[in-house]
Amino acid sequence: MSYFAYKNGVLHVENTPLTEIANQFGSPTYVYSKAALVENFSAYAQACKANGRDESTSLVCYSVKSNSNLAVLNLLGRMGSGFDIVSGGELLRVIAAGGDPRKVIFSGVGKTQDEMRLALSHDILCFNVESTAELQRLNDVAGEVGKQAPVSLRVNPNVDAKTHPYISTGLKENKFGIAYDEALATYRKAASLPHIRVVGIDCHIGSQLLDDTPLLEAFDRLTELVDQLSEEGIHLHHFDIGGGIGINYNNDQPVAVGDYLTRLFQKVDQWRQRRYQGAPIQVLFEPGRSIVGNAGVLLTQVEYLKHGDGKNFAIVDAAMNDLMRPAMYQAWHGVQPVTQRAGAPKTYDVVGPVCESGDWLARERALAIEQGDLLAIMSAGAYGMTMSSNYNTRGRAAEVMVDGDKLHLIRQREAASELFALESVLP
Ligand code: LLP
């Protein structure tokens, strides 16, 4: 269900009108629905349960990069979520939010020695290793600190995720993962290293996938590897299928999470029956967007309307520094007036105040609006705040979490003085 709906002509988040949020906290402000977050996480948790899984046979590791606010991490952690991280900073966030580091998996192609030390000191669940050089470095660092590093190799299954090229990661030409044909040799190498403990296999083929066919295909490709490894005496404890399930931005119809998980678990069960007398393997998921994407909007106010020759602009107080996705991927986000107005709509480009032609949030939208109106940029919960910047010395937006009719400020708006507090002039 949608927790963003009009009541008496005013767009609400759960039971709270967005006008109320603008009055209290100003704009631009990211606004999240707690109920939506809970529902989206529960879709994964319930599908695991419905397919007979417990924590020893399934673990949802929320992808922190999609929205890393402490309140979001804390809420998901309390629901039992693990976390997929890509930096030492994200690990420190998870810990600050009360998340369990022993449910953390560490992805990413460029882990530094310091990040490895930090993660080892917190006994994370697994390092998803993306190259031989990284494997070697991790072995050395683990040896220095007297530990064995738990490792999965991120294998590139070379399947086409059929999504935007910038967010497709499972093809040969991407920088991610270890090539399928090199995976066996790399596993043998990993198994021979004294400070590495091989525990799993991992892939992540892309993001905003509407169909689960490429994921199931990737699963099949990787099971062949697992079988070959097991014949060589290398037995894996978990299988990480990555994240990637998409959301509805613009009449998109993503596969339902429950349906995807059920199909995947059926495949897992058939495979384990066929090859391993039904012995289970723990399945890991790394969802981001499908948990937070449609749980958040970006609330913004129209500063000016500019009616030009054949082109109308709504200049708003949010910009590409707040929400990069349109500028970066030509991504489409719905735009809804917070208070509905009568009158004929005009066609507008919704743009920000930043000095770049690429600074737009939406193009050619029919809107009945006036100066001072509030707009909601929809589906902005994932890769919104986390990708924001301070370009043009703009403080980042505030973040508010709505819980029914209760409002929680979960990140204050940045003040300009904070933006240059770490800088100094020459003596
Ligand atoms: N696991 C790994 C290793 C990833 O690289 C990602 C996302 C995820 C999990 C989570 O994927 P999700 O379930 O959210 O699709 N900034 C882009 C998306 C970049 C995705 C990067 N990796 C956007 O705004 O569309």
Automatic annotation (TrEMBL):
CDD domains: PLPDE_III_DapDC. GO terms for molecular function: diaminopimelate decarboxylase activity. Residues 57-292 form the Orn/DAP/Arg decarboxylase 2 N-terminal domain. It comes from the Bacteria. Pyridoxal 5'-phosphate binds at G244, E286, P287, G288, R289, Y383. InterPro entries: Ala_racemase/Decarboxylase_C, DAP_deCOOHase_LysA, De-COase2_C, De-COase2_CS, De-COase2_N, Orn/DAP/Arg_de-COase, PLP-binding_barrel. The keyword Chaperone does not apply. Coiled coil: none annotated. It is an enzyme of class 4 (lyase). It catalyses: meso-2,6-diaminopimelate + H(+) = L-lysine + CO2. The keyword Cell wall biogenesis/degradation does not apply. Keywords: Amino-acid biosynthesis, Decarboxylase, Lyase, Lysine biosynthesis, Pyridoxal phosphate. Residues 30-381 form the Orn/DAP/Arg decarboxylase 2 C-terminal domain. Its cofactor is pyridoxal 5'-phosphate. SUPFAM superfamilies: Alanine racemase C-terminal domain-like (SSF50621), PLP-binding barrel (SSF51419). The modification N6-(pyridoxal phosphate)lysine is found at K65. Homodimer. Specifically catalyzes the decarboxylation of meso-diaminopimelate (meso-DAP) to L-lysine. Belongs to the Orn/Lys/Arg decarboxylase class-II family. LysA subfamily. NCBIfam families: lysA (TIGR01048). HAMAP family: LysA (MF_02120). This is Diaminopimelate decarboxylase. It comes from Noviherbaspirillum album. The gene is lysA.
